[in-house]
């Protein structure tokens, strides 16, 4: 391949280039190399801000971007943002240029799959060879990529099929793209057929992953999990396999195992914000607040220069630290509460124009102060937040968080009334309704929740074993912690009714049943225990006073 090769010169010459590097001499050197290869339209920029701004207004075919750009966003952040904002077409090429070859850098950048890496120092021959090969592939596959950019997937599928016999050199790319397109349009049968065809010839990671994705869509979770476990065993750096494995385990109702998989993944590649966020949410679901706080901490830090930065990450970290510090007056508890307050103040400065962010911040700060025995500060903050809150218009997450703080401040009636309004407004949203029910049942700190759940499990086991006295004791111990818990009160009532069958003259047992039923008078009709509550209430009404 030489400069006077007209085909090569035309290939380079008709495209537009963007060079991003913080060193002017390197930018100028790279421009000279590109020009000697036939390139003409070349823009040079020194940092991420100007790079992203330029691509917003100018279509770019090839980006050559340094990984380290000094303070601020790095090359990974640029690639992440360009993809997120769809400023790069599928046919555009992004080459990561770097002098750094550390494992963390490579794993981090690979998450967003640049088209190639160029390691400094770069010479003209290396650039022409690497980029020339990519440009030939780009040219050959341009019609397919154009249709995908237009979201005309049936046409893209037809082009893949017609291109396969003409371009055997790019068979792997075409087969992978074809299978992915079939999956995207919901043709799981043809997608699986292609993945199987590839795997019969050769064990390729992307084909195994694609087949597992189809298996999950078909709810064949066991096979998908087994195949994915083997895939990460053989290829421990294949991050997409960890993510899909966690997804499959969650779908099977195994959130603890899913959390463990993501923890392994973040050990291999710690700088992927979205994975850290997923891990944090899973850990919180599993009541592993230590792990949740650590993952939210990483999410917040990784968001500093990321397009995915969000006040929700700061709030979640503040909430996790609040849960961990609540009622803990030790030095560690004080440190966690102080960190939570710092995180929330940082959030307010970072998102100054979002009034809702300030309101949420005050709500969580109030709870932090209450948990550290500072009721005066807590009341002052919640009163400032209340001015901005209307139960009929408040969003679900803020409403639930507000109710949680009201419970901590001893305002149970106000909290229950608010949750009733939210249950009415969001009764058609299962996830929101679940949060409301959880708070109605357990309006206490996470440590007390764990303790109450332990007593509940003990009571259920004793009841199943026919040990009614032991079951009643366990449920009563749990209700000491969460007296308004719907399922616990109803569980205890069922035990008492069972005991009454053996002692029909013991009216005290019926009195106890009515007392516990009265604890649930606030239960909204949308609560999943409401039908059970109504049935038991009707049964008790038919019994002698």
Descriptive account of the structure:
This protein has 545 residues and is mostly helical. Among the domains are: 6-140, Rossmann fold; 448-541, Tetratricopeptide repeat domain (Serine Threonine Protein Phosphatase 5, Tetratricopeptide repeat, Alpha Horseshoe), CATH 1.25.40. The protein contains 27 helices and five strands. α12 (239-251) runs antiparallel to α13, α15 (289-302) packs antiparallel against α16 (311-325) and α26 packs antiparallel against α27 (530-541). The chain is elongated. The chain starts with 5 loop residues before the first helix and ends with a helix.
Based on DSSP secondary structure assignment, what is the total number of beta strands?
Answer: 5
CATH C-level name of the domain at 6-140: Alpha Beta
> Helical residue percent?
55-70%
Examine the secondary-structure arrangement and name the CATH architecture of the domain at 6-140: 3-Layer(aba) Sandwich
What are the SSEs and their pairings?
Layout: H1 6-13, E1 16-20, H2 24-36, E2 41-45, H3 48-57, E3 62-66, H4 75-84, E4 93-98, H5 103-110, E5 116-119, H6 124-149, H7 153-163, H8 171-184, H9 188-201, H10 205-217, H11 221-234, H12 239-251, H13 255-268, H14 273-285, H15 289-302, H16 311-325, H17 331-350, H18 355-371, H19 375-386, H20 396-408, H21 412-425, H22 430-441, H23 446-464, H24 468-481, H25 486-502, H26 507-518, H27 530-541
Parallel strand pairs: 1-2, 1-3, 3-4, 4-5
Helix pairs in contact: 3-4, 6-7, 7-8, 8-9, 8-10, 9-10, 10-11, 10-12, 11-12, 12-13, 13-14, 14-15, 15-16, 16-17, 16-18, 17-18, 18-19, 18-20, 20-21, 20-22, 21-22, 23-24, 24-25, 25-26, 26-27
């Amino acid at each position: 391949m030489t400069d006077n090769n007209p085909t090569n010169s035309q290939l380079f010459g008709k495209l537009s280039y963007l060079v991003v590097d913080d060193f002017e001499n390197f930018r100028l050197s790279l421009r000279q190399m590109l020009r000697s290869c036939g390139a003409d339209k070349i823009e040079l920029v020194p940092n991420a801000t100007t790079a992203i701004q330029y691509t917003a207004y100018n279509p770019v075919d090839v980006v050559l971007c340094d990984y380290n750009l000094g303070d601020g966003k790095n090359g990974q952040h640029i690639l992440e943002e360009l993809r997120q904002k769809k400023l790069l077409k599928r046919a555009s090429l992004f080459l990561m240029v770097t002098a750094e070859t550390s494992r963390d850098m490579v794993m981090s950048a690979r998450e967003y799959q640049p088209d190639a890496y160029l390691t400094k120092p770069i010479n003209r021959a290396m650039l022409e060879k690497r980029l020339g090969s990519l440009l030939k592939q780009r040219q050959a596959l341009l019609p397919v990529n154009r249709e995908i950019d237009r979201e005309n997937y049936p046409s893209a599928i037809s082009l893949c099929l017609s291109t396969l016999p003409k371009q055997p050199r790019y068979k792997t790319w075409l087969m992978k793209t074809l299978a992915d397109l079939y999956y995207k349009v919901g043709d799981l049968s043809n997608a699986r057929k292609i993945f199987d065809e590839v795997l019969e010839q050769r064990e390729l990671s992307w084909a195994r992953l694609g087949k597992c994705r189809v298996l999950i869509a078909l709810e064949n979770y066991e096979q998908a999990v087994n195949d994915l476990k083997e895939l990460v065993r053989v290829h421990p750096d294949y991050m997409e396999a960890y993510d899909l494995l966690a997804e499959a385990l969650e779908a099977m109702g195994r959130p603890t195992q899913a959390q463990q998989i993501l923890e392994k993944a973040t050990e291999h590649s710690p700088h992927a914000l979205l994975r850290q966020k997923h891990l944090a949410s899973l850990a919180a679901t599993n009541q592993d607040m230590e792990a949740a706080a650590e993952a939210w901490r990483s999410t917040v830090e990784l968001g500093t220069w990321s397009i995915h930065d969000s006040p929700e990450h700061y709030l979640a970290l503040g909430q996790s630290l609040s849960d961990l510090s609540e009622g803990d007056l030790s030095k560690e508890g004080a440190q966690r509460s102080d960190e939570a307050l710092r995180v929330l103040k940082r959030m307010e400065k970072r998102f100054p124009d979002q009034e809702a962010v300030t309101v949420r911040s005050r709500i969580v700060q109030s709870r932090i102060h209450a948990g550290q025995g500072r009721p005066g500060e807590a009341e002052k903050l919640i009163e400032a937040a209340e001015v901005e809150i209307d139960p009929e218009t408040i969003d679900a997450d803020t409403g639930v968080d507000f109710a949680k703080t009201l419970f901590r401040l001893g305002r149970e009636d106000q909290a229950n009334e608010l949750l009733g309004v939210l249950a009415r407004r969001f009764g058609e949203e299962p996830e929101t309704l679940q949060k409301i029910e959880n708070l109605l049942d357990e309006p206490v700190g996470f440590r007390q929740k764990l303790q109450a759940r332990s007593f509940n499990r003990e009571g259920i086991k004793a009841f199943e074993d026919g040990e009614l006295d032991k079951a009643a004791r366990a449920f009563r111990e749990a209700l000491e912690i969460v007296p308004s818990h719907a399922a616990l009160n109803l569980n205890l009532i069922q035990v008492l009714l069972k005991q009454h069958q053996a002692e029909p003259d013991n009216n005290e047992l019926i009195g106890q049943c009515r007392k516990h039923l009265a604890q649930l008078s606030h239960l909204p009709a949308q609560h999943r225990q409401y039908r059970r509550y109504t049935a038991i209430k009707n049964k008790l009404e038919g019994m002698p006073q």
